[in-house]
């Protein structure tokens, strides 16, 4: 039987924290309890700041708890492109920052004794087609990374690779146990964590910031850091400067011992693998099926594609013991945004391109140093206010034209003919109810949930994600549970319910 949910969240014992019930004062408010928020909060608390962290749901329960757990400077075939696009200095900054982040994560694990299955292993990038990875290896090495072209047999996967690049001495870990360890260390240092506390509004008042929360309490602080997946609401306009992307993962047991290294392909579709220690020596994590959030009509088929890939390679009838998805945001110039949001004193971090365990560590250092008034060697490459050049502007225009089309016609081609009486258990979608478009889902207990399928961020039509049982916005990536509650922003308000 397949468990629908992250293997990491299912196998981690996470502490629970109170809802924010009374107003709070702090030096620093951190919004978001994922890897960036927790790391930044911990570092600032250790530096002597008084920090409050608020999380809309549970600590590490969204993207950070759904990663592959790869802590590596090997980010696919990215470095030759960074060099060509940004020049040697910026490319080297990115490379050096992420390689340093690998060691910083390992240092935190050792310093605080976090039991998170940390293992050193190589990370491979490979092609089974005609992609030329020789220059990628050459550029990565030029930038100071431990990268080498190696014989394809080193990959350890039962497929025919044409080229393979190996990054030495990288790290893999159990991300949820790591996040739980960061939260515990932050609390021991005097930090305050509040869960199930959604920030719905941020206002600057002179040199102070006030956050209003869904429970009705407020937090006032000298500094505010928004470390959510995407800055909430309209902050900084990052909803129009990034694109939401979703990946899917499965945990399986092979008929043979799983490869010990981490690997990712440059082919389409991308396949990313790493060992699954909880599955024993034969355990394997496979991630892939990337697509823009809300842009996949049959997400169940994506999971089937991952299972079929495993079955074909290992000549077995694979069964996913866990399946889950994760969302992240990409930027048009391939570099994250970290720093002060334009027109605001609020600090943000977004656009990690699915490499949040290293980019998140880099972001935390930049945010910490901005609060403390210190220089940071990586801040210029991650500048949150940059435009990114003519090519980036062109991509932004293209992306926002697509958003405009989604505004105009998102519902028309997906409306189902049957009425609400025909919604079967486990099924959801758009239905015609007395001439009105209604979003409906019937849960395993037979209860029917209905919503107005319009995103509460900027009014885009929503799409039903059958594989994950969520309402997804293709415009800016907000996601909602079947009952309409917010799972991922930038939306901060739940979906409305139909009047009839």
TrEMBL record:
The keyword Ubl conjugation belongs to this UniProt entry's keyword annotation: no
Swiss-Prot/TrEMBL keywords: 2Fe-2S, Disulfide bond, Iron, Iron-sulfur, Metal-binding
Example of a GO MF term: oxidoreductase activity, acting on paired donors, with incorporation or reduction of molecular oxygen
Keyword Disulfide bond among UniProt keywords: yes
InterPro entries referenced in this protein's UniProt entry, alphabetically: FAD-dep_OxRdtase (IPR006076), FAD/NAD-bd_sf (IPR036188), Rieske_2Fe-2S (IPR017941), Rieske_2Fe-2S_sf (IPR036922), Rieske_Fe-S_prot_C (IPR005805)
Annotated Gene Ontology cellular component terms: cytoplasm; membrane
Superkingdom per UniProt: Bacteria
Pfam families: DAO (PF01266), Rieske (PF00355)
Domain Rieske residues, every copy: 415-500
Annotated protein name in UniProt: FAD-dependent oxidoreductase
């Amino acid at each position: 039987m397949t468990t629908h949910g992250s293997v990491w969240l299912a196998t981690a014992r996470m502490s629970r924290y109170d809802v924010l019930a009374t107003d709070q004062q702090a030096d620093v408010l951190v919004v978001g309890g994922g890897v960036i928020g927790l790391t930044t909060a911990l570092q600032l608390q250790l530096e002597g700041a008084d920090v409050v962290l608020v999380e809309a749901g549970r600590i590490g329960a969204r993207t950070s708890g759904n990663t592959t757990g790869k802590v590596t400077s090997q980010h696919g075939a990215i470095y030759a492109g960074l060099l060509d696009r940004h020049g040697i200095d910026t490319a080297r900054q990115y490379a050096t920052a992420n390689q340093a982040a690998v060691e910083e994560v390992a240092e935190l694990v050792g310093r605080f004794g976090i039991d998170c299955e940390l293992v050193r292993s190589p990370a491979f990038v490979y092609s089974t087609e005609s992609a030329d990875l020789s220059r990628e290896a050459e550029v990565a090495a030029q930038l100071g990374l431990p990268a080498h072209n190696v014989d394809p047999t080193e990959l350890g996967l039962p497929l025919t690779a044409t080229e393979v690049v190996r990054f030495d001495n990288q790290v893999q870990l159990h991300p949820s146990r790591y996040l739980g360890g960061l939260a515990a260390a932050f609390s021991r240092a005097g930090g305050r964590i509040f869960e199930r506390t959604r920030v719905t509004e941020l206002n600057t008042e002179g040199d102070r910031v006030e956050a209003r929360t869904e429970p009705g309490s407020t937090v006032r602080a000298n500094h505010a850091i928004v470390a959510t997946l995407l800055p909430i609401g309209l902050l900084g306009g990052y909803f129009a400067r990034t694109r939401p992307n979703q990946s899917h993962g499965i945990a399986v047991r092979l008929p043979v011992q799983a490869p010990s290294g981490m690997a990712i392909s440059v082919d389409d579709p991308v396949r990313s693998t790493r060992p699954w220690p909880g599955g024993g020596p034969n355990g394997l994590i496979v991630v892939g099926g990337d697509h823009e959030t809300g842009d996949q009509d049959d997400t169940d088929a994506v999971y089937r594609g991952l299972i079929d890939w495993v079955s074909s390679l290992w000549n077995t009838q694979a069964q996913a013991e866990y399946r889950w998805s994760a969302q992240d945001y990409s930027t048009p110039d391939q570099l994250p945004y970290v720093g002060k949001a334009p027109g605001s004193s609020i600090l943000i971090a977004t656009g990690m391109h699915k490499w949040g365990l290293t980019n998140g560590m880099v972001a935390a250092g930049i945010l910490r140093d901005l609060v403390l008034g210190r220089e940071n060697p990586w801040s210029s490459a991650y500048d949150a206010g940059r435009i990114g050049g003519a090519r980036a502007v062109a991509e932004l225009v293209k992306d926002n034209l697509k958003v405009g089309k989604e505004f105009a016609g998102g519902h028309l081609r997906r409306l189902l003919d049957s009425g609400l009486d025909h919604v079967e258990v486990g099924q959801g979608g758009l239905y015609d109810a007395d001439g009105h478009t209604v979003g409906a889902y019937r849960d395993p207990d037979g209860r029917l949930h209905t919503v107005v399928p319009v995103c509460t961020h900027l009014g885009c039509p929503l799409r039903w994600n059958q594989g994950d049982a969520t309402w997804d916005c293709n415009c800016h990536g907000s996601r909602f549970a079947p009952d309409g509650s917010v799972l991922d922003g930038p939306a901060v308000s739940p979906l409305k319910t139909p009047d009839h």
